[in-house]
């Protein structure tokens, strides 16, 4: 029956490099082709960062989220830097995601799929190919995997050797995360491992501690009456994701797995296609249609029904559960008009997708002081409206996609501490997009858990 299992044979008109025959946006202009070919060749012979059975497990969990049995939390930095590959920063990012997921598990009463925007999120699309300062024009900084942020001709030259550096940093990051998790770091019996020192100053400290205590009491009660440990709760799976932007990097880590009979991108579990590169007939859609990984696609107001429908049927022709996630990012002011049209367009194809809300990108603006920022109230508003619209249309919001950090930054205004435009200069560290800090991220998870749990509470017998 179509749609029950993923395709069992590779596409006959697709290869890992067939994207090169299509228009390719947002690609670095490498001048040394020999150096690029050498880097891609070396990268293609290195061990994969993830393995196919992990990818398949994630697809099964995403299929469950489509059915309403799980909820996806996808979060991390807007763009990782190579300098971020240090144990303390990695642990902080993992800690805030684990804290958020614990809150969601408690509020939603269902398993949470944890997917980090990490271990590969080293490239970012740009609105212009060049940047001009004081009359000097140089190539735009496109992320550490492409070039360097310093405003010099040498730094801004796309460097193929950075593809290998990106692979090394991604592998180091995910291996450290795996070691932490396998060592019991993510054990629900020991959420104290996730403590971020500055959470003690958060106005949500008491609320979070009550949730931790409630989970601990629940585990203790079950284990007491069953006389055995809740083994499934001892550890959690953690998956990686990044935007599949620099296609030479993605191609080099694409492998055919004979026992699966399919091609996989083994640089990450869940690649996604951004709004700027989602055109039908473009290189990114061509590349992603041939791999067996779950694929995310960012969806915005610029996508009409025909475009969206063709993306759905091109990327998931067999309607395989868990294969395709649509990450909508309309902005709070446009969501009520745009999201119903998107839901209706997809419904008309007869295909099922996992709907995820990205409340960050559609709400970006400039502060009075010139900083790029996002207002927390707009982020919450878009999430709240997303739940309402999906519920009203008989659809289901199955996940949230946020840019966040475990650091005490000031990049988004608002939240419980009421950060203002004037506060942004105190600890604005992002080189690309503004992120929620640890406190705002925890507040967001508490509010999502409360809102998403309302329909379940309303169904309880009185």
Topology:
Blueprint: H1 33-44, H2 52-66, E1 71-76, H3 87-108, E2 112-117, E3 130-133, E4 136-139, H4 153-156, H5 161-182, H6 205-226, E5 239-243, H7 247-252, E6 254-257, E7 262-265, E8 270-273, H8 283-289, E9 295-299, H9 305-315, E10 324-328, H10 335-349, E11 354-357, E12 364-366, E13 372-374, H11 376-392, E14 397-403, H12 438-458
Parallel strand pairs: 1-2, 1-14, 2-5, 5-8, 8-9, 9-10, 10-11, 11-14
Antiparallel strand pairs: 3-4, 6-7, 12-13
Task: Explain this structure.
The protein is of the alpha/beta class and 462 residues long. α3 (87-108) crosses α5 and α9 crosses α10. Helices cover 38% and strands 14% of the residues. The chain has one domain (18-130, 160-407, 437-458): Aldolase class I (TIM Barrel, Alpha-Beta Barrel), CATH 3.20.20. Strands 1-2-5-8-9-10-11-14 form an eight-stranded parallel β-barrel, surrounded by five helices.
Report a brief summary of the structure.
With 462 residues, the chain is an alpha/beta fold. Helices cover 38% and strands 14% of the residues.
CATH superfamily membership: Aldolase class I
The rounded distance between the terminal residues' Cα atoms is: 41 Å
Number of helices: 12
At the first level of CATH, what is the class? Alpha Beta
Strand order of the biggest β-sheet:
1-2-5-8-9-10-11-14
The protein's oligomeric status is: single chain
Which percent range fits the helix content?
25-40%
Element-level helix/strand string: HHEHEEEHHHEHEEEHEHEHEEEHEH
Number of domains: 1
Shape: globular
What CATH architecture label applies?
A: Alpha-Beta Barrel
How big a fraction of the residues is strand?
5-15%
Radius of gyration: 22 Å
Structural class: alpha/beta
* Main β-sheet description: 8 strands, parallel, barrel
The parts where pLDDT drops under 50 for at least 5 residues are: 1-8
**CATH structural fold name:** TIM Barrel
Q: Report the count of strand segments.
A: 14
Question: How confident overall, as mean pLDDT?
Answer: 89
């Amino acid at each position: 029956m179509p749609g029950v299992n993923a395709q069992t044979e590779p596409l006959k008109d697709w290869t890992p490099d067939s994207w090169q025959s299509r228009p390719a946006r947002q690609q670095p202009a490498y001048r040394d082709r020999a150096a690029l070919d050498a880097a891609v060749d070396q990268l293609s012979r290195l061990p994969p960062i993830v393995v196919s059975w992990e990818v398949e497990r994630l697809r099964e969990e995403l299929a469950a989220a489509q059915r309403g049995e799980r909820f996806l939390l996808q979060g991390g930095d807007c763009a990782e830097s190579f300098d971020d590959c240090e144990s303390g920063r990695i642990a902080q990012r993992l800690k805030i995601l684990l804290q958020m997921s614990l809150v969601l598990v408690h509020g939603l009463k269902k398993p949470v799929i944890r997917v980090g925007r990490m271990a590969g999120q080293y490239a970012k699309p740009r609105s212009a190919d060049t940047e001009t300062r004081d009359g000097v024009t140089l190539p735009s900084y496109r992320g550490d995997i492409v070039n360097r942020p310093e405003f010099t001709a040498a730094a801004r030259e796309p460097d193929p050797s950075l593809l290998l550096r990106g692979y090394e940093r991604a592998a180091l990051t995910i291996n450290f995360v795996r070691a932490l998790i396998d060592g019991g770091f993510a054990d629900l019996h020991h959420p104290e491992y996730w403590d971020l020192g500055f959470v003690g100053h958060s106005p949500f400290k008491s609320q979070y501690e009550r949730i931790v205590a409630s989970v601990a009491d629940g585990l203790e009660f079950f284990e007491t009456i069953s006389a055995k440990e809740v083994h499934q709760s001892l550890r959690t799976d953690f998956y990686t994701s990044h935007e599949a932007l620099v296609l030479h990097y993605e191609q080099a880590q694409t492998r055919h797995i004979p026992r699966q009979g399919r091609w996989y991108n083994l640089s990450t579990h869940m690649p996604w296609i951004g709004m700027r590169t989602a055109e039908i007939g473009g290189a990114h859609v061509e590349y992603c249609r041939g791999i067996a990984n779950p694929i995310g696609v960012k969806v915005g107001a610029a996508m009409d029904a025909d475009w969206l429908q063709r993306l759905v049927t091109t990327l998931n022709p067999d309607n395989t559960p868990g294969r395709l996630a649509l990450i909508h990012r309309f902005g709070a002011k446009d969501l009520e008009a745009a999201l119903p049209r998107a839901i209706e367009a997809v419904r008309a194809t007869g295909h099922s997708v996992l709907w995820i809300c990205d409340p960050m990108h559609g709400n970006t603006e400039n502060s009075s002081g010139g900083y790029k920022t996002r207002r927390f109230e707009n982020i919450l508003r878009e999430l709240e409206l997303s739940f309402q619209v999906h519920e009203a249309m008989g659809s289901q919001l199955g996940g949230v996609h946020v840019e966040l950090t475990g650091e005490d930054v000031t990049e988004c205004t608002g939240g419980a501490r009421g950060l203002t435009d004037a506060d942004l200069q105190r600890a604005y560290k992002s080189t690309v997009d503004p992120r929620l800090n640890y406190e705002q991220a925890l507040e967001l998870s508490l509010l999502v858990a409360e809102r998403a749990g309302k329909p379940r509470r309303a169904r309880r017998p009185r």
